[in-house]
Amino acid sequence: MRQNPKVSTLLSLLCLSLLIGCGAPSENAASSDPSAANGQGDASSDGSPVVNVYSSRHYDVDDEVYESFTRETGIKVNLIESDSAALLERIKREGDQSPADVFVTVDAGRLYQAQQEGIFDPVTSEILTERIPANLRHPEGLWFGLTKRARVIMIAKDRVESGAITRYEDLANPKWQGKVLIRSSSNIYNQSLMGSIIAAAEEKGAEAWCRGLVANMARPPQGGDRDQIRAVAAGEGDIAVANTYYLAAMMVGSPEDQAAAAKVQPIFPNQDNRGAHVNISGAGVVKGAPNRANAIRFLEHLTSEQAQEKFAGANKEYPVVAGVALAPELEGFGEFREDDLNASVFGASNQQALMLMDRCGWR
Amino acid sequence: MSQGSGLIVDDVSHVYDRTVAAQNVSLEVRPGEVHCLLGPSGSGKSTLLRVVAGLETLQSGRVEIAGREVAGPDTHLRPEQRSVGFVFQDYALFPHLNVHDNIAFGMPKTSRERKREQVGELLAKIDMAGFEATMPHTLSGGQQQRVALARALASHPAVMLLDEPFSGLDTQLRREVRHKTLELLHATQVATLMVTHDPQEALATADSISIIRGGRIVQTGSPEEVYLRSANRQIAEVFGRVNRLSRTVRKGLVAVPGSSVAVQALADGTAVEVLLRPESIELERHATAGAITAKIADISREGATLTVTLILEDGSRLEARDLARQDWKVGETVHLKVAPEAAMIQSLPSAE
Amino acid sequence: MVGARRRLASWVRLAPSGLITLFVASPVLVIAASLGADTGGLWAHLASTVLPEYLRNTALLATGVAVTTVIIGVGTAWLVTLCRFPGRSLLRWALLLPLAIPTYLNAYAYTDLLQFSGPVQTWLRTTFDWSRGDYWFPQIHSVSGAILVLALGLYPYVYLAARTAFLEQSVCALEVGRTLGLGPWHNFFRVALPLARPSIIAGLTLVLMETLAEFGAVQYFGVNTFATGIYRIHNQPFPHALTAAAQLAACLLVLVALLIGIESLARRSARFHNTSTRYRDLPSWQLRGPRATLATALCALPVIWGFGIPVLLFMTRNLQRGDTLARAKFLEFGRNSLVLAAVASVLAVVLAILLAISERLHSTPLHRFLTRLSGIGYAIPGSVIAIGILVPLYWADHRLSAMIERLFGFSPGLLLGGSLLAIIYGYQTRFLAVSLNFVQAGLTRIKPSLDGAARTLGATPVRMIRSVHLPMLRGSLTAAGLLVFVDVIKELPATLILCPPNFQTLAMRVYNLAKDERLAEASTGALAIIVIGLLPVLLLSRMLDHSRPGAEGSRPAGAAERKQAPTHESRLRPDRRRCVARL
């Protein structure tokens, strides 16, 4: 290939600009916080206090909460976001040299896994134990729930009478054949829901339920929770299973989403017995954390009223702290009874749940 | 310039890609001499050149260039240390460099002006003065070949290796380029080892020829020697058709048309084969001393040359080649004669 | 004694390839090493429940994508290279545009557009007063949908390879075809295609590796393949999950090894260098009337589908509701992406040069094997590679830290992990195949006799590489660098897990929003990725456009072209005899 002189000029200009830009971020990182560049968070080494957070939550509102933490305490938050399993592996590989102070993740099963892997250090904090209900934290303070999300049934207002479906168990009822929309079994929320079913009905009952559900599916599982809601609104099915905050977010989303959300009604299942399935996102202090004190302050900040309001307001999650105002959309869904099964239970049964779903052909 | 004793290849054996490229090959090329390796295509001749150049690692034997061992059981000089010039079959001009930069590529370190001067001189020698800035792909085949030659010579190698250097050229051009090349090679006193599958080219170019078969050298000699005194029929046939006459040794003599040849080494009664090249048979209209008669069975004309098929009195057929000086006719009786030294006599192995 | 020295020399020769391969392929080896490990019955469970589906879908997907990309890529390359029709000069480079769009974004876009609740089907329903079941509509969330979306994003690799090959075919080969009485079609199938085959296969191998590793789009479509299966199990919060995922990945490796083996065979059996020494303009068939329209349409469709529609959609969504994040943040993300991509692509090209030239200099089977091995990470889903990277990375990091402590008496902590170096390293593992592929292809186009010429003219190997190989490879190196650049811009999982604190790239931003199912907001980041990816793609197209066969690097710096006069006449005489020999 012949090199066009213009192209090579352009190219060298590009490379030049890149090389110039290249120094910038590392320099930035170095000047603002040298520890950030190499993942070291030892507050004592340069004086400015930090907390190193490994998070698999990935919401913009989290950044705001972290910023308010820094504003209040002067402690800088160094954040690494990635998938839960990968972060966990990274912390394990970093070993005793790990700069990680706090591990944040969504889903109780994952918290349970981190606990099992032994990466958490017990924390005693009056503030935390006071604010967080006992069933949403580890008894020895290995981890603490930060937000709740309810996984509920959503029905098409115009096609399903309210009261026609009231329990998760009903999803397996043949009367809904070809009407149920739910995403893939790869999704951790579904796995935890399955775990709660196993806890309620034993493996045998759970498997029967699972087979019934698969038989009722309107289409092979695909897309995310919002896609299930949209599909109900569009008439591809009548009943969807989704987390409440997706519906709430759609209510203030794009015009199409708002229109879709208006056609859908959330039903909190099993109000007459164990309550609706609730999952949590949570965090714990990492064993050997170089900034342990900062880490505890960080957790305490996340359970502050102000932070909890943010989680609730912007992200439409349910706060773990009692008395914090809900987002107006959630308020509109009304109060409901929660399944207060300890999160560890469906964490422990995750593998069982996954294998069961595989056996039933839930894709 | 070249010095010492040119190129010595001593007992080299080499296997390449599961074919025997060389088996106990020994040869010597003196400075100023052009030595031709003649063999069929794909017989591994090029591999031998690559071994000499150091592009292949020698497997067994020795190679000496300008009195210095460059490859042997204990030595392997890298190609760039060997002082060889290599002209590849495809010329291998660097497509991204112009003619000047191609030729100057291998020149010893010197000032830019000096290089430009030397390149200019070389280009003049190959009749391409003024082509310095031309890119190779715009040159004709003949020009590319000459540039490749000049490039190889520019580093003053002791040994030049030419791999089928003229095969990419058409007949007319080939003769010119060949002439020019030889002139240049002889002028520089470099020892040249050239590989070709074309016997005519070998005869026209070489000071000495090694005929190679299955990796072995089966005969080495001057063009005259290998042509006129081929070691066996297979070799003789490399250079074209030969007439074969069966004879028996009688009183130390073998009868050939028009005379007899003395053979001391063979006992009487030995069955032999007499090989005669068509052009060594002379045709005459009038009987001369010792000539025998034959009848013309067929005449075919190729340019200025006639190929005349003759039937001897004993019924055997011969082919003679003759310039179209005479107006031969089919059916005519002619007299023919062979110079005794042109007859190659082979004892037949089956007779022993 | 001599034998010992020679053995030592051969080890030394192996060192560059060996070290690079070890460096780049160790994460893959970590994955492969998992094969023997115990998974507590998980493996048996997977094999009996989901594995058959993974196998079937992966095979279907790979076959479908291969066939589709070859048809689109080779067909359009042939049309724009050898036919004249309206819009050809525009389409010639526009056909590369889909490269700039990550396939997962394509998947989002098409889902958005074509799903039951999307605008197209909604329009149909409201216009014709249909409801569900009243009409048939192709299901985008299916294997065929995934094939289509992947093919639309990946065909440029084949297009690029085929077009380069067609451009490089000396005109004589095609002219001989014509003189032998072959029409355009026959010429294509009997002459051009066989000659271009090694290139096309190389391009196709990249496509297939990327297909095997493809996770985002495929998962979104609900098609369960090896890649999605690996990701699924790998994210499970129970013991042995990572091991089981690694074992699945190791199975994938076997498939890839098979693929690479086939490719090597195909390349070896059809290895040729340009024998012709002269070129001239390629012949071109002027198309008229309906044929010309058809050609324009055929070449425009992949661009419209693979680029136009998704970009339009993202633009609409962006206008409706863009990312709420401040623009300053976006500039930072963009700069991070750019820096990573630039550094990673330069390094990938340098490593590829070292590997490929090392393989060329000492063409031993071991060198060939090592070179192959170093590219294998391209076929492993990035999320798994990322885990594989952690193992050697932190191993080295702990050693380094301990060493410094021993030498200087203080512990520096972890230096490599969580630095940009780690991500750059991850990208090498993942994308070396791309640069390697192009550098190797470029090298095979350099006749081996040039090496011999350079060496016998007194050039050391280093000088030969510097003054012969590298200048001649300039085009290939640029192409390699640009493609890695685009790939890095699009890549996600390796960045995610290996990145330093407070470091985000555009891809990470888009992923975070998409993961949260906020596609409208993600459109801003998507557009930014596309814009950044577009730059190298445009450069690449330009370069390809201006490349003239046989003229690679034909304008050496500093050399004035004073004498051009004697060239034209000779250029017009194709070397026919050689053509025949080649055929």
Helical region count of chain B? 8
The biggest sheet of chain B, with number of strands, parallel, antiparallel or mixed sense and barrel status, is: 6 strands, mixed
Q: Give the mean pLDDT of chain B.
A: 86
Which residue ranges of chain B are poorly predicted, with pLDDT under 50 across at least 5 consecutive positions?
Answer: none
Strand order of the largest sheet of chain B: 6-7-8-3-9-10
**Beta content of chain B:** 25-35%
Q: How much of the residues of chain A is beta strand, in percent?
A: 5-15%
Distance separating the two termini of chain A:
48 Å
Structural class, from helix and strand content of chain A? Answer: alpha/beta
Q: What is the helical fraction of chain B, as a range of percent? A: 10-25%
Largest interface chains and counts: A-C, 87 and 100 residues
Which residues of chain A form runs of ≥5 with pLDDT under 50? 1-45
What is the string of SSEs of chain A from the N terminus onward? HHHEHEHEHHEEHHEHHEEHHEHHH
Task: Summarize the structure in short.
Chain B is 23% helix and 35% strand. With 352 residues, chain B is an alpha+beta fold.
What does this protein structure show overall?
- The complex is a heterotrimer of chains A (363), B (352) and C (583).
- Chain A has 363 residues and is of the alpha/beta class.
- Chain A contains 16 helices and nine strands.
- In chain A, strand 1 (50-55), helix 4 (60-73) and strand 2 form a beta-alpha-beta unit.
- Chain B starts with 6 loop residues before the first strand and ends in a 5-residue tail after the last strand.
- Chain B is of the alpha+beta class and 352 residues long.
- Chain B has a six-stranded mixed beta sheet, with helices on both faces.
- Chain C is mostly helical.
- Helix content of chain C is 74%, strand content 1%.
- Chain C has a two-stranded parallel sheet.
- Classes of the chains: A alpha/beta (363), B alpha+beta (352), C mainly alpha (583).
